[in-house]
């Protein structure tokens, strides 16, 4: 089930005014200002950080801990519409500045928890089935960096791997066809909010 944008959905609502200037970082973009405050990040961890499931891989999820080892909780738009408004407005503002993809909706937000040893090997967010229409991926670190070690977000757009800075509350966006991975967490707990915006036609 996906979250569909209404025709009147504005990209300049709450917080979006702070995101008119973004920082380019290779094939990714990072908002200059946090989309979520430290208090909001903590609230999300407290609210959704329990009763987590082991997620699979792909449009027809199959668990493979050799590739992906994490815990996840899907967040429905009806359960937290204010959160959806915040992240959608921020993501659409950045998209309108850089990629200008035609976006029609998004998959359910997910809260992810990486314990020690948690990781996600090289992968794309776009794929077959319903994942074909993903265009823009984003992640928002909910944990402050001091709470964990490891768990780097690495993207590959050339022979050189690039580690993307993770700042609590700031949104990192990248096209869903970008190859990326999460290195193993070696200490602590790493919480992330992730989402994928989609359109009616792939790669447009």
Fold and architecture overview:
- By secondary structure, the protein is mainly β.
- The protein has a single domain, classed as Jelly Rolls.
- It contains two helices and 16 strands.
- The strands form three sheets. Strands 1, 2, 3, 5, 6, 7, 9, 13 and 16 form a nine-stranded antiparallel sheet that branches.
- A hairpin with a 2-residue loop joins strand 2 (22-25) and strand 3 (28-31).
- Mean pLDDT is 88; it is low at 9-26.
Fold topology:
Blueprint: E1 2-4, E2 22-25, E3 28-31, H1 38-48, E4 68-69, E5 71-75, H2 81-97, E6 105-107, E7 109-114, E8 119-123, E9 134-141, E10 148-150, E11 153-156, E12 161-164, E13 172-175, E14 179-182, E15 185-188, E16 190-198
Antiparallel strand pairs: 1-6, 2-3, 3-13, 4-8, 5-7, 6-16, 7-16, 8-14, 9-13, 9-16, 10-15, 11-12, 11-14
In round numbers, the mean pLDDT is: 88
Q: Span between N and C termini?
A: 21 Å
Structural Rg: 16 Å
CATH homologous superfamily annotation = q2cbj1_9rhob like domain
Query: The CATH topology is what?
Result: Jelly Rolls
Q: What CATH architecture would you give?
A: Sandwich
């Amino acid at each position: 089930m996906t979250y569909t944008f209404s025709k009147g959905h504005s990209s300049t609502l709450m917080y979006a005014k702070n995101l008119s200037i973004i920082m380019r970082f290779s094939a990714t973009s990072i908002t200059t200002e946090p989309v979520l405050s430290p208090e909001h990040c903590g609230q999300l961890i407290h609210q959704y950080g329990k009763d987590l499931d082991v997620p699979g891989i792909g449009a027809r999820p199959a668990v493979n801990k050799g590739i992906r080892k994490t815990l996840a909780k899907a967040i429905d738009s009806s359960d937290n519409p204010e959160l959806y408004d915040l992240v959608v407005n921020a993501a659409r503002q950045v998209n309108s500045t850089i990629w200008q993809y035609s976006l029609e909706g998004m998959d359910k937000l997910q809260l992810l928890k990486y314990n020690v040893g948690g990781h996600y090997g090289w992968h794309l967010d776009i794929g077959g089935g319903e994942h074909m229409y993903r265009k823009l991926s984003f992640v928002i670190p909910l944990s402050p960096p001091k709470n964990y070690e490891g768990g780097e977000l690495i993207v590959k757009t050339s022979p050189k791997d690039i580690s993307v800075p993770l700042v609590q509350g700031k949104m990192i966006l990248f096209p869903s066809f970008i190859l990326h991975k999460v290195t193993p967490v070696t200490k602590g707990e790493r919480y992330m909010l992730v989402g994928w915006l989609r359109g009616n036609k792939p790669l447009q």
